[in-house]
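Consider the following assembly input.
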Amino acid sequence: MNADRENGAPRVVRGTPVDLRALKRGKIFFTSYTPRLRYAWDTGEAISRYLEELKHGRLIARRCHRCQRVMIPPRMFCERCFRPTDEWVYVRDSGKVNTFSLCYVTWDVRRLKQPEIPSVIEIDGASPGMGILHLVKRVKPKEMRVGLEVKAVWKPAAKRVGSITDISHWEPISRRG
Amino acid sequence: MKSQTQKWHGEIPITSQYTAGVAGQIFLAALKERGELLGSRCAPCNQVYVPARQFCERCFAELSERVSVKTSGTLKSFTCCHVDHDGKQLRAPQFWALVQLDGATTLFLHRLLGVTEPAQIKLGSRVELLIKPKTKRAGSILDIEGFRIA
């Protein structure tokens, strides 16, 4: 109907807003529906092993023998060389902040007083630029910077389930001396 | 370690509340309060839409004239359903009817009650709408039980 034009001006057809008070008093008829939307995502060969290793408190990567890159998260195929990757290599559970965000809202856009700090962390032992996205904690927003050295804080073994959240968060490596 | 692939399980929480709309509200209110079936007439198109609706789907004019139609009608088409809307097998087949109610020009969809197999149904049969007693009506299309062959 908006395409209808009279004297060149678009004709506006207004919607009818729902009166919330009438809705609460049951004066407006509606159908409520909650579908059960479940999915099972096949994690594939590389990520399956990656998740299994997380359960044991280890980070694992894949090396390509042609370009010699060590890739994390691991993949079975080298996107640079167009060939299968060759071997599993363990990498360390420490790294450097590659990039970060000071996030003052939650995922459903509620305000936060203290920001969450999602960061891409370049993992020690993997190739430069290879990293994973995770949360950095125990650092003041003003002290957050690219290059900050951080270490994984693991959940206790009994609480690990084979998920990236088996790492609770990352925090700065305290410098001694 | 043996290589084996895993599954990652997840769920997407969604709840929707779908209002009946302006004309749907009028239709459901009449059904709930008076057990009455309201249609919308478009005089230029010579149409009576049931349930009532806000716009004529032929000429796009806004419809304000409401007319009451009868609870009796003629069976125009039907479907025998062996699965529910999730695709799960039903214990007994369910029947759904498209009926032209007396006074309407459109077809009205609802359950066809009291039949167990397609052979019992004849197109063109007279049918009657069964409406729940007032105390059980909630302002829903399910305030109607369905059609029964007259």
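Chain A touches chain B at residues 1, 16, 18, 28-45, 48-49, 51-53, 162 (CB under 8 Å). Ask yourself how this observation constrains the way the partners meet.
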